[in-house]
Amino acid sequence: MNGFVGTAAFQGLGGGVRDVVEPATGEVLGSVGTADADDVRAAVTAAAAAQPGWAATAPAERGAILRRAAQFLERHSDDVVEWLVRESGSVPGKARYELGSVLDELWAAAALPTEPHGDLLPDSPGRLSFARRQPLGVVAVISPWNVPLLLGMRALAPALALGNAVVLKPDENTPFSGGRVTEEIFAAAGLPEDVLRVVPGGAEAGRALVAAEEVSMVAFTGSTSVGRLIGAEAGGALKRVSLELGGNNAFVVLDDADVDAAVSAGAFGSFFHQGQVCMAAGRHIVLASVAEEYVEKLAARAERLTAGDPWRERADLGPIINAAQLERVDRIVRETIAAGADLRAGGTHRGPFYRPTVLAGVKPDMPAVTEEIFGPVAPVLVAADEDEAVALANRTEYGLTAAVQTGSAERGLALAERLSTGIVHVNGHTIDDNAFVPFGGRGASGNGSRHGARQSWEEFTQWRWLTVRSSAVASAF
Ligand code: NAD
Question: In the chain, what are the domain boundaries?
Fold first, then answer.
């Protein structure tokens, strides 16, 4: 693990030092410090002091720094891909896809500072009236381990571009690929000191960050349970909060679908990155006349996929991130079988490598349907008709994304309109995101579709109305 990232990071913090472990092998990859509440407060104070100078930096220069960060990252892609593969258990294809998406985020964000950032407003003669977007101040970014580099970057790149300072707290499982890489590429790009601070640690560091007085906004990506706590805390302190939370996404297959294409998209939706994706297809809802063919082909495809160490062997799936997650996936599968579901593929694991699993005969109240699995499991429910498919799809508190497979774009669009999600793809995958779209969910999946290039203006700035006259005017008083 050579290269610019190093293997010892954030040493000397109050919370001590710990090992970072490769999930596929248990090998120690490096050592990392842990921020305590004092470290977090100090980082926020430093970021708050640096922010006005950064906001006053010429827009073209801010954009140039983001472009240099992208160029540095691109030059060091191989180092970063190794960290993503070994620290987060990604297969190389997923790591390269993530890296490409991060580059897009940086390039898209780099264009933001030089876009128009205000409106000239109608007013009476002699008064100039305009509205201007201004940065919020310090934005706290809290990210998860599953797509660690991208899920930090998609918030922090536009936040920085628009003149905010950022304090990033990566997940404890991925402090290098989720934190250290980001810190290093911006340092190499010439970002002024303290405009970006990284505070590694777990829930304690996260809580201290949300509570820190100088934080104006919290951009959180992670579980719904933690998102609820953060939303309550940030709301109480009147801070802006963006919540990108869990999902339990429906993959609907209509009776006129190309079943082979649907199986391919459905398998990708449930098994990509071991199912550890918020956009994973958590529920396959298939119309009765094609259901048995779909299950048979999906199970055959699952049996052909390999799960193994993505760094040392060719594998379609890598390891589950840690023992607690592995146990959770296995429990949900066992409980669903015990409740009467039919295991058609997988259902076992070799060490941290969980086999792609297909469950048929699944009913709406079984655990594999009611819980976000976050593992490579495809539960298949059968619907009698489109109305039942829509009812099943909407029978969840989540509302992130959905996909509909059909031979008719019109039928797909009509059904898409009836789904309560922030995102829908007709004849596409549930797993689909890029830097140029408004990404986000509803209900328990989050508080809006707001990440994305144009939407970033709404997210990471606030309006200011300003008027000016050349001389004061007398009032009626
Ligand atoms: P998690 O909520 O346990 O952790 C996410 C982050 O929050 C980590 O950095 C963690 O250290 C921090 N954290 C934990 N407790 C905290 C607290 N009390 N206060 C402040 N910070 C705290 O989530 P996870 O298990 O790491 O990630 C998986 C979850 O994330 C899944 O539910 C998944 O669907 C969701 N996710 C959502 C999106 C999206 O865009 N909607 C993307 C990826 C993952």
Answer: 8-245+446-465, 249-426
Out of 143, 245, 276, 277, mutate this one to test ligand 1's pocket (max ligand atoms within 8 Å of CB): namely 245
Helix, strand, coil % over all residues of the chain, rounded to 5 = 40, 25, 35
pLDDT in tens, 18-58: 999 999 999 999 999 999 999 999 999 999 999 999 999 99
The radius of gyration computed from the CA coordinates of the chain, to the nearest angstrom, equals 24
Give the predicted TM-score (pTM) of the model: 0.97
Q: What does the alpha-carbon distance between residue 469 and residue 129 come to, in Å, rounded to a whole number?
A: 9
Q: Does domain 249-426 have CATH number 3.40.309.10?
A: yes
- Asked, colleague to colleague, whether 8-245+446-465 and 249-426 share their fold, the answer is no
Catalytic residue check, 371: no
Of the candidates 430, 357, 435, the one whose C-alpha atom is nearest the C-alpha of residue 398 is 430
The residue type at 416: A
Nearest to 38 by CA among 255, 204, 287, 189: 204
Query: From the candidates 172, 278, 372, 459, which is the catalytic residue?
Result: 278
| pLDDT of res. 449 | 62
Q: Give the separation between CA 158 and CA 47, rounded to whole angstroms.
A: 16
Q: What is the mean pLDDT of residues 208-233?
A: 97
Per the prediction, the chain carries an average pLDDT of 97
Q: Which residue has the tokens 């993530």?
A: 98
Active site residue 278: yes
Q: What is the mean pLDDT of residues 371-385?
A: 98
Asked if the model's pLDDT at residue 68 lies above 80, the reply is yes
pLDDT tens digits for 412-438?
A: 999 999 999 999 999 999 999 999 999
Architecture of domain 8-245+446-465: 3-Layer(aba) Sandwich (3.40)
